[in-house]
Amino acid sequence: MRKLLPLGALLVACVPPFFVDSYYQNMLIMVFLLAIMAGGWNVMGGYTGYISLGHSAFLGVGAYTTGILANAWGVSPFLTAPLGGVAAGVLAALLGLVTARARGTVFIIVTFALLALLGIVAVNWSSLTNGSHGLVLAIPTWDAAYANWPFYYALLGLLALTVLMSWAIRRSRFGIGLLAIRDDEEKAAGLGINTPRHKLLAFVVSSVPIGVAGGIYGYYLSFLDPRAMFTIVASITLVLAALLGGAGTLWGPVIGALLVEPFSQWTNQQFTGPDAGAWRLVLFGGVLLLVVLFLPHGILPEIQKRLKRTPATAPVGKRLDHLPVARPSGPRTFGPALLEVTGLHKGFGGLRVLDGCSFDVKRGSITGLIGPNGSGKTTVFNLVHGLLRADSGTISRPPRLARTYQLTRLFPRLTVRENLLAGARRPEKAMELLEFIGLADYADKLADSLSYGQQKLVELAQVLMLDPDLVLLDEPAGGINPTQIEQMAGLIRQLNSSGTTFLIVEHNMPLVLSLCDEVHVLANGHRIASGTPQEIQRDPLVLDAYLGADFRELHGTNS
Ligand SMILES: Nc1ncnc2c1ncn2[C@@H]1O[C@H](COP(=O)(O)OP(=O)(O)OP(=O)(O)O)[C@@H](O)[C@H]1O
Q: What distance in angstroms lies between residue 377's CA and the mean position of ligand 1's atoms?
């Protein structure tokens, strides 16, 4: 693709002088326009995963701002078109603030409502927009033989800038943050990504090229009709182009525009009369539905998948070289409490999950938190990590704290390296940690192509990128094989010897007993025992509430 790019660019640039037929020039101008709109939208809808149905509003805002200012100042609309981009950006920022908490369908509806609202404003604010009569712009003054050229090159240049912007974003930490939000917003926030700021910026960035394009397009038409400028058909068309080509890819929106625009022009010729708009809406909506159902990732990812069809196996797990580090013999001494939880109460509706839970984790220790299913261990993690708020009680936690999840939550569509970089932009540190967990060879593989055990290791490395003082591990051995459990234990010990404190929730008792310095046992929402592994496995309360008869028999423990 990269090698073909200069050739393609040269060919496209040669069209106006060599293909004077204005039909084809106009077709390409409209393809560029649609590609810019789909490319801008892609930053929000493709990278960030927030589907907007209102993005064509930025085209109208850009066109009106450009036209009104050019008329008022008596200058060429080409000069005021960048201000169309500014107006679109400001509007997007305002809307972004309003929709800060909106997700999924609510976001779609709010963006659609914005489009409808602006259409009404454009029709009714006659003193500014000339209302439903439309706004007339200056007619181009250059020779009719070159009539389309300036628009053609202006939009081609803007398209190049849009693709370049999209490329730069995808390679930046900001872009990794956007993709992380798309894959798992809650987890992204947990890794320290400022998700509201990322979304706001993505919204603004996605609107600006469309606003500038609106200015150029308005001049191309020389007449702004509010119904055509704020039509839902335009929004559906641009979303269709992005999804068909491949949302979240660099070239997908361009490929989509190349396919959708000729189709759109064909429907323009086929449907005439007063209901034409409604029929086109039905048709585009239907095609959009088909694309979502049958080609959900779009054409480009489908082609890439077919080309890459290497053996469909996941990378085979390399045996890690890190042998578990032997436990230091003799008593270990620890610092003061790094985490202190006192009298935590938490309920969900009528269900009391935590009922006066208190315990601490000493600096430098590996502390276990065990208990029967449903005793509230994960809820404690969620409270300590700040995902939930306690009904009452206090938590004194260190500032640098990170957690893993019971079921791994890597960003599946980011590479292993990008998963690590999402929380902190430190490429050397990321590679160092991948070496440490034995997965450096997998740095550029997509996270979801790894085995579950490998994903658990990557999630550990991911949280270590934050240089945490305290790491909360939620079932690090859950669902992985005994060799990998041993590897995981070895890594935890190694990290602990270099100063990291761990709080581990785990059902694998041999692991807990061999790894932990101190163990707290929860049952019915509060702590029923604390002590060294030796003390815990002899405690009759713990044997009754959790470890049970099997454990007693197996280990010959007497009550
Ligand atoms: N967000 C929630 N809304 C309603 N109930 C919840 C919520 N989160 C947890 N619970 C309930 O709270 C109880 C404790 O759940 P929690 O996941 O903390 O237990 P756990 O000790 O971690 O269990 P396990 O060992 O099975 O992971 C369960 O009955 C669970 O169904």
A: 8
